[in-house]
Design a protein that fits this description.
71% helix, Arc Repressor Mutant, subunit A, single chain
């Protein structure tokens, strides 16, 4: 459909409430308003364009200035609606649909925290029974996840000494844990 041209007679008829003239005003100006709003980054330019013409309609009977007055009125309202749209967007945070399958957050339960704390306390209590050098080697190998070479550098011993300390510590832990199971 060809876009109608606006002339003074059409604007006068639209101001008087003529439906065909109102339709022609909309068809002539709505595409330009839509482009304006899109170019200014309005989130939903089609909806705002409709709001513009809904706001202009009651003002038409008092319109002065003919075609240029109508254009000025329409784009003044479009500008005001654009500003309103920006303000509303600033007040309203962006929403995102919740997808449970994509939610990787996890909060441990109080039970998990308590068991972890008890486990840590038990491990520390058992490790406290080991000689300091064996305990240090286990901390560095298991907790810090260091290689034998790095542990040797940290504690200032040979790699063979680190291996021997680790072996003795694991044998001692095995015996301590077996002893605790028997006494319970």
């Amino acid at each position: 459909m060809k876009r109608p041209e606006l002339d003074e007679a059409t604007v006068a008829a639209a101001s008087a409430g003529d439906e065909a003239a109102l339709r022609n005003v909309y068809l002539a100006l709505a595409p330009a308003v839509l482009v304006y709003l899109r170019g200014r980054g309005v989130g939903d330019p089609e909806a705002v364009t409709s709001e513009v013409f809904v706001a202009v309609l009651p003002r038409l009977p008092g319109l002065r200035g003919g075609v240029s007055g109508l254009r000025t009125l329409v784009f003044s309202v479009a500008h005001a609606r654009m500003v309103d749209s920006y303000r509303a967007g600033a007040r309203r945070p962006a929403t995102v649909d919740y997808e449970p399958a994509e939610d990787t957050r996890a909060v441990p339960s109080a039970e998990d925290d308590a068991l972890r704390q008890l486990s840590n306390e038990r491990v520390e209590a058992i490790l406290a029974l080991l000689p300091a050098d064996q305990r240090e080697v286990l901390y560095l190998r298991v907790i810090a996840d260091l290689s034998i070479e790095h542990v040797a550098q940290v504690i200032g011993r040979s790699q063979g000494a680190v291996k021997q300390l680790q072996r003795r510590a694991l044998i001692a832990l095995r015996a301590l844990l077996a002893e605790r199971r028997v006494t319970r």
